Amino acid sequence: MAQCNEQLRRDDFLPQALITRSNVEALCTTDGPLDDLVYHQRLAEKRDFSTLVLPTFRPDELFETHPDRFLTFVSRLSQKTEKTITTLDEFLAALEARIDFFHSTGCRVSDHGPLAIRFRPLDDAGQAVLFQRRLAGDALSEDELQAWDSLIFVALAKMYKQRDWAMQIHFGAIRNNNVPMFEKIGINCGFDSIGDQTHLAESLNDLLNAMAENNGLPKTILYNLNASYNDVVASTIANFQSGEDGVKSPLQFGSGWWFNDTRRGMVNQLNTLADQGLLSNFIGMLTDSRSFVSYTRHDYFRRILCDLIGGWFERGEVPEDDAILNNMIRGICVDNARRYFRFR
Length: 344
Description:
It is built from 13 helices and eight strands. It has helices at residues 2-8, 15-21, 38-44, 67-81, 88-104, 124-135, 142-162, 179-185, 200-213, 230-238, 263-276, 296-314, 322-341; strands at 26-31, 52-57, 109-112, 166-171, 173-174, 193-194, 219-224, 251-253. Strands 3-4-7-8 form a four-stranded parallel beta sheet, covered by helices on one side. It has a two-stranded parallel sheet with strand order 1-2. Helix 7 crosses helix 9 (200-213) and helix 9 (200-213) runs parallel beside helix 10.
């Protein structure tokens, strides 16, 4: 313990030094739509820190179910953007203004964390009425909340696509299950679980199709917490792949996440992607830890990837061609992500 504490007092163990020593090219923070991003602006001015630190647009407030909290967000959004918000169109225009601000600060990624993927369509008139009910402070039914989430997802997706952003969706986590412990020590303390849902395949296909029909299906990365749905997610993504804007596999089956961030979870995800999609276009490992020493996860993932492909090679299941295999592994480890996100 004394030796560790002594090391941590050294300059080369400060956060920025750890990031530099880990050879991190870019990292993205998680930021609410009303954040001022002042620290990103300050970091952009630093000349002695080469890692890109960019914001991520995480609009959890848009999916708020509690009427009072949602109205508080609308009021703050109006103040922040200096825009009057009395209609759905005005609300979406204010959101777009915030997205433009994030874009100007270097943001190229959004993130969303729904418990489940559910799609319930409404026509334009129905959407306008639903917003007025939210603005009046009405409590919505479960069906109405699903309709609200659907319209917001489709609207945001088009804004992201117009700016060449990648939309991330991490779904399937049931959070804060132990209420006494939540009240005692708060969120993110180990009392979350893998969720399940009915009709995932239908809802996910319908949601992505609605985005496509709206000419607004952006680059999208789906992270699935329930491994029993891996084939459902991977086969759904395959329905909407394209070569638009020079991006290979713009829809991605995200790497094993959270409870799947294990050897078994990573191998399962890689095998599913190889079965249902095109593994060579995979953008690789995500590290969403809050720890400055978590980047060793990438090395762990790369070793698992190489072991898996090496096993295929030894069994004659892939071509005996070093150039093909080396390019595929290097692409998954680093090059595909560079081409996909286009941070620079």
